[in-house]
Amino acid sequence: MSGGVDSAVAAARAVEAGHDVVGVHLALSRMPGTLRTGSRGCCTIEDSRDAWRACDVLGIPYYVWDFSERFKEDVVQDFIDEYAAGRTPNPCMRCNERIKFAALLEKAIALGFDAVCTGHYAKVIEDADGNRELHRAADWAKDQSYVLGVLTHEQLKHSMFPLADTPSKAEVRAEAERRGLSVANKPDSHDICFIPDGDTAGWLAEKIEMTTGDIVDETGAKVGEHPGANAFTVGQRRGLKLGTPAADGKPRFVLEIRPKENKVVVGPGALLAIDEIRGIKVSWAGLPITEVETGAEFDCYAQVRAHGDPVPATARMEPATDGTGASRLVVRLVSPLRGVAPGQTVVLYQGSRVLGQATIDTARSLQRAAL
Amino acid sequence: MPAYLDHAATTPLSGAALAALTRELARTGNPSSLHGSGRRARRAVEDAREVIAAAAGAHPSEVIFTSGGTESDNLAVKGMYWSRVAEDPKRRRILCSAVEHHAVLDTVEWLERHEGAEVAWLPVDSQGVLDLAVLEAELSRDPGSVALVTVMWANNEVGTIQPVRRVVELAHAAGVPVHSDAVQAFGSVPVHFKDSGLDAMSISGHKIGGPVGVGALLLGRSVKLTPVQHGGGQERDVRSGTLDTASIAAFAAAAEAVAATLPAEAARIAALRERLIEGVRERVPLAVLRGAPGGGRLPGNAHFTFPGCEGDSLLFLLDLAGIESSTGSACTAGVPRPSHVLLAMGLDEETARGAQRFSLGHASTEDDVDALLAALPEAYARARQAGMAGHESSIQTAGTAARQASRGT
């Protein structure tokens, strides 16, 4: 329980459904801040107290579990390493994969619990054989199935999302109010919890050694200099400070980051349109569909950001060619997507069902490849 | 009914205290008022003062009522420090044991940060007993620079009783006053303020069957103290604020009851405690008793570290089984931190995380101990399993799936 309204209502519903529920607040930092500032916050004393208060009202025990070491290694360090390697990671996804539905779940199971219940907006469906599928929440605007796309079948078997069928967030707030939960009107948290002021670039600049280098255009010609390639994100337009204007006078965007050469490649927006994605670290949210085993191509929708729109695509598994034994996921986007960066996660859907996900290794623009 | 094994945190209100509390709550009167109602309230407060003085081996005028142990500790440590510095600015050193309750520890640290105090943390041995040689050395280094010595009577986590008499002898020989936090000791073992020679001593109501929110500082008549809280000049002008007649009367009723039965109750509770310790050792041979053996610890205290598990996991599982215990230390955000007491006793962080304190008191029975012993083996096994949850998750995740695939399994 984060101390927010969603997890409080999720806990309330789980209690009402007759489960034995214990509230757990994750301590993700050894030095929790004193008080929340504005709407942001994670692991502050006030968030902890809010979660505790919700448990008091629900009449359930409350514990703080310290996963700060694991969090630092598996999420924060991973975030830094990925940026240092020129990729754009999703730390919430890593946290779901490795902390909430792994480290925490494992401890919970050892203590005799059956499942981790969270306030995520997503739905788990079980078929007659007890196999589970992950689906989008009823409210697509609030749907969080993307950040849960990384869950495996085993993790889904121990997951509960009581907010699945809630028509809207307003409904959740109203329910919290009705139940006497003081967090009913608490603002939503956003941004990355371990970067409380929201200044990701500034935060990274303190952790990653930045070296000035060249900004080049799509032809390889130098058009400017940057203070450190790792501070840039694919699709970024602002803050490039290019001395030489583009020949056509149109704005230029970051197309690619080359950490080894410490170069940032910029070019016209049209070259940001990605037609093909190759993904590694593939996982399936539940049992994989037949085509995954046969290697056949299948129709699906691909989504590359938590709140991005899904686009039609075809996908297939490609056997390993590099001797590692790890298969890759090849996704062809029927309508190209802008601003796809290596390190991001592509989640595949069929209808409301989440099929699985992969970490984007390469993102290819046909137009750029033809240059 | 759960088995309540957390008397060191707070105790159930005794019958006598409840009767006094409800009787006085129904009455009106400020003890400082001169009219009839005020006189009646004053009478109740002064009766209570005499009772508590008698129970603690002090003169009634040495009893300063406060809101509890924390306030008494703050008042004693800050008040003595300030008055000693005011008399002689050279006196900036505070000699403080490393195992104090946070009410003393944090007060001393605050004086260090904000008031120019220099702190010498006095070490303890593996049983938590103060190293008198270090105290002696610190005192003799430059006696004129020491503002005060503060050493608790008995530790709240591991129950170790400190050699308070020797501390006082050494300090007084050097002309230095001594404060002791006797919150855990008072009512549990014989505590005699006058005989101890202490200059100031903190006690609390709710640890002895009285209500929460009332305590006292026993303060020698010749000891000068700079007040922390200013106002109406109550309590020798040392602690202003309208006196809480009902709580004070209830505190006295509890103290009287405890004093009347102390030797017998202490023996009864110590016997229960031994039964608990033996039982735990029998059922969980890996458990290690912390603190001093036998008479070296508070009769009601049993403190163990359970290897391989986290204290709060064990606490949770015992709670589930109807046993109420404690890890021995708490933190504002609820984040479990290894105890500074155990670390001072030389334990490593890993071992210290497995701490569990069972504390018995006036309400404890054999059934409580038996309930713990019945629930403990399974709770320990489970907590250990949860604690073993190593770094590589046994849950299949996207990461483990990818690694397995690349290994060709």
From TrEMBL, chain B:
Under InterPro entries, the record lists: Aminotrans_V_dom, Aminotrans_V_PyrdxlP_BS, Cysteine_dSase, PyrdxlP-dep_Trfase, PyrdxlP-dep_Trfase_major, PyrdxlP-dep_Trfase_small
User: SUPFAM superfamilies, alphabetically?
Assistant: PLP-dependent transferases
**Stretches the record annotates as Disordered:** 385-409
Can you tell me where the transmembrane regions are?
none
Q: Which reaction does it catalyse?
A: (sulfur carrier)-H + L-cysteine = (sulfur carrier)-SH + L-alanine
Family matches, as Pfam families: Aminotran_5
Q: Which cofactor does it need?
A: pyridoxal 5'-phosphate
Domain (Aminotransferase class V) spans: 4-372
As recorded in UniProt, its EC number(s) are 2.8.1.7
Q: Does the keyword Calcium apply?
A: no
Indicate yes or no for the key word Metal-binding.
yes
**Which keywords does the record carry?**
Iron, Iron-sulfur, Metal-binding, Pyridoxal phosphate, Transferase
A GO MF annotation of the entry reads: cysteine desulfurase activity
The enzyme class is transferase
What family does the Swiss-Prot or TrEMBL record give for this protein? Belongs to the class-V pyridoxal-phosphate-dependent aminotransferase family. NifS/IscS subfamily.
Tell me what this protein is called. cysteine desulfurase
